[in-house]
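User: For documentation purposes, I need each entry recorded in a consistent format: the amino acid sequence on its own, followed directly by the corresponding structure tokens. There are two entries in this batch. Please keep commentary to a minimum and don't merge the entries.

Assistant: Recorded as requested. Entry 1:
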Amino acid sequence: MTKPGPNLRRLFDAVEARRARAVGQDHAFKKVNDEETRRALFPSNHPPVA
């Protein structure tokens, strides 16, 4: 496998410089799959809420 070209390396460096990989790290994402989450992810598995 060959090394990436200079344009691709420049793109990776630009992305890293903008800290794009850190997007979302300051947000506390929900880590528990409760009933509300399951209904949102799989609505066909649950009867409609009246």
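Entry 2:
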Amino acid sequence: MTNKSIPAPIDYLVFSHLRWNFVFQRPQHLMTRCGKANRAFFWEEPIYGTECAHVEIQEKSPGLHVAVPRLPDGISKEESCAIQQVLLAKLMVERRIWTPVLWYYTPMACEFTRLVRAAAVVYDCMDELSAFRGAPPGMRAAEQHLFTIADLVFTGGQSLYESKRRAHPSVHCFPSSIDREFFASARRLQKEPEDQQPIPRPRLGYCGVIDERMDLDLLSAIAKARPEWQIVILGPVAKISNSDLPRAANIHYLGMRDYHSLPAYFSGWDVGLLPFAGNEATRFISPTKTPEYLAAGLPVVSTSIHDVVTPYGTQGLVEIADEPDQFVAAAERAMAERNSASRLKKTDKFLSFMSWDSTWARMTTLITQAVAQNSKRPTATVPGGRVTDCFAAD
């Protein structure tokens, strides 16, 4: 395959540890926008249990496709990588994907993408994955390799930026952003979802994945301290057992809900909660729900997560508390300001500088520059000047 000049639009191959139909978050926000001007193929981790290995392609929009590898049970890690390498090559030939931008959410995908010549390589680091429960043993080594081949490293928050900025010469901080108008519609909605309507007020809500990052003891303590408060939980349970969840008459688990229904749920809450535990898995998180709660008009109470404390806590936009009695007191203060015009005005001014559209535009500028720079390199090199092989796709 010859290294021709890169036309516009550019094809993107995106490798993710998160499934597209899971919680709608950073990858979905960015790749939805990517697909409006480019072709984007969102490659998920394999699903095992088929007799014949293949890739299922789901078209989410004219430019956005989700690719789900289906592999046989009982194969080794090495066999899985080898099969995915072949399936990826076949996809590229069939869809005529020449010299794409490779975009990684999981460094583990480097194991089967090493033969692909890229127009540019992007690592969008949204979490410290090696600190998560069940992380593959080779995650740290894979990330170190990705740093050596990436043109650009984006981080999902300031704390991750501080952690990664010395590992690569081009690290850029792009914190969690927001669809402001979408969530601001919660301030105007009159009708709540049917499953939330019977729950009394006041309601304190959490929306997101329920996993090892949640402080379940804190939730239990809040429910016990204020039995008249109703705690509404939206989201899937992952990596922990349902038996681990605190149970009480005033804790309501409504399950995962479609992204487009969230403003309707938020409209019936009195406080938005970020009850995260202080552990390795939360050390670098930047919760997307922080600006979403605020845009919906909710006062917010959070534990002392670094990327919530700064900037939201220091700006007086979010109450910060860790101990149960402090958290309850903070929630009481938050509810007292639920309809404060001055609070909403301050919140809206802060959020006015944030949007996923702006984030994607700034990312695109950096990627375009990287693609242009790499197009000047000799044919036998990939981003960073490292020599690689390439399968024949002509």
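Summary note for entry 2:
The radius of gyration is 22 Å.
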